[in-house]
Amino acid sequence: MNKFKVGDIVSYRNTRGSIKKAEITSFETVGNGKVWFHGIDTDTKAKVWYPVHISEKLTEHQFKIGDHIDYLIGNEWQRDYATIHGFHRNSNLPIAETNRPGHDGCKWSYTFDLSKIRLTQ
Q1: Cα–Cα distance measured from residue 48 to residue 52, given in angstroms and rounded to the nearest whole number
Q2: How many C-beta atoms lie closer than 10 Å to residue 26's C-beta?
Q3: 61 pLDDT tier (thresholds 50, 70, 90)
Q4: What's the CA gap between 94 and 73, in Å, rounded?
Q5: Which of 109, 49, 30, 119 is nearest to 80 (CA)?
Q6: DSSP letter string over the chain?
Q7: Which of 60, 63, 2, 47 is nearest to 29 (CA)?
Q8: What does the pLDDT look like over 7-17, one tens digit per residue?
């Protein structure tokens, strides 16, 4: 059984890959036994139809695009280390670009493990 109910505001990924919010209006079980929800986008008021199990994964963490994060290397936090610019399509882990150039003068993007990052304080 899913943890959502009608009226809940949940996360979903739109066709452009951005994570947005929608209010659930109903549920539907599709052919493979998966449950999808019908909803209304909270910003655009567009109708949404999305898999509940993916929406549950999207709500597992509080990070969003544009957040500045610190990253743990060993036992030391790297302060204001990166800015989130997206989420991995399969794992939903944050993808962030470093705020400081590397040894080659370029900024690098990494997929970050949730247990090793925190919002910049």
Answers
A1: 12
A2: 10
A3: low
A4: 17
A5: 119
A6: --S--TT-EEEEE-TTS-EEEEEEEEEEE-TTS-EEEEEEETTT--EEEEEHHHHHHHTSS---TT-EEEEEETTEEEEEEEEEEEE-TTT--EEEEESS--TTS---EEEPPGGGEEE--
A7: 2
A8: 988 888 887 76
CB distance 99 to 107 below 8 Å: yes
- Residues shown for the chain: 121
Structure tokens given for 105: 């003068």
CA separation for the pair 68, 84 (Å, rounded):
7
In angstroms, the CA 89 to CA 82 distance is 19
